[in-house]
Amino acid sequence: xxxxxxxxxxxxxxEGENLVLNCSFTDSAIxxxxxxxxxxxxxxxSLLLIQSSQREQTSGRLNASLDKSSGRSxxxxxxxxxxxxxxxxxxxxxxxxxxxxxxxxxxxx
Amino acid sequence: xxxxxxxPRYLIKTRGQQVTLSCxxxxxxxxxxxxxxxxxxxxxxxxxxxxxxxxxKGNFPGRFSGRQFSNSRSEMNVSTLELxxxxxxxxxxxxxxxxxxxxxxxxxxxxxL
Lengths: 109, 113
Known about the structure:
Number of strands of chain A: 11
Structural class of chain A: mainly beta
Strand content of chain B: over 45%
Oligomer: heterodimer
Radius of gyration of chain B: 13 Å
Structural class of chain B: mainly beta
């Protein structure tokens, strides 16, 4: 059974810090992996999509990496801001998407 | 370009009733997926439709069903509602099966009393 795990479950950091969110999955046969953010009571906002043939993707202050052989992806957020506070979800596509339980990020001013 | 829209946004039903939720994908997107989100189980995949055909299905009972129309709009139906069906139901659309970056709608909050 495919499983997706996100560590840590919650993270609180002061504004300006660089931080790393982790996502691990049990099967290396993935099609792609997508990172999302979710604000309370809202839908999901797509941040980055990494295809299985790629090693990383970047968008602004965000960088996501993918290591299929070790079953890991990391989301790096540079110079964090209070507006980055949200829950970050990793979704792995094993022919259908499996979601991790998310990392709840709080960036303190 | 308009995003994914879902209607209604909020719904209150009683046990035993049935409900239909609607999702309109981004223009040009042909794939629609549905998810259930609860505090206890997180986000769980319900089903995916592409070109009016169900392509994939999650591990939910037969009370949960869906369909997709020729204009790619999709509906999901839950019959004989149970208290445990209370959840945020999210719809996501993607361009195709080959490039399937998912874009989510705001969700429908279903409360079953």
